[in-house]
Amino acid sequence: MPEIRAATRDEARAVADLWLRSRHAAVPAIPPPVHTDDDVREFFTNVVLPTREVWVADSDGALVAMMVLEGDWIDQLYVDPAATGRGLGSQLVDLAKTQRPGGLQLWAFQSNVRALRFYERHGFVATRTTDGDNEEGAPDVHYSWPGSSR
Fold first, then answer.
1. pLDDT band at residue 149, thresholds of 50, 70 and 90?
2. Second label for 5, Cα 20 to 30 Å away, from 12, 39, 50, 79?
3. How many CA atoms lie within 13 A of 100 on its CB side?
4. What is the pTM of this model?
């Protein structure tokens, strides 16, 4: 079973590559990334790992899932395409709930029906939708989890 742990700054490229594999494999359920692969790697190296809380699932040295927490937001949650269906996303969401017991929020693409069902199974409630108020220009759904203290 993979170990869930905090990512280290020197894993920025591996985390970015996991994100890229997952995003590319999820098309057309979600829109393709709007930034180049190199720009994504630079963003993870210079912004995400230094300034946000990043958790990974490590399977014998290979990263197979990742989650970025920023404040009370689940900013990113991706599982390697070869590792889906093993409960890694659920483990990361459960970790986020323990890290942020006062509540969480996130955005998900409306077209990603599998993710919408996943978040709803984990107690997230859709609070609003947009027609594409994001850099991909794709309709999305805002979800919130009220927290364990409420």
1. low
2. 39
3. 19
4. 0.94
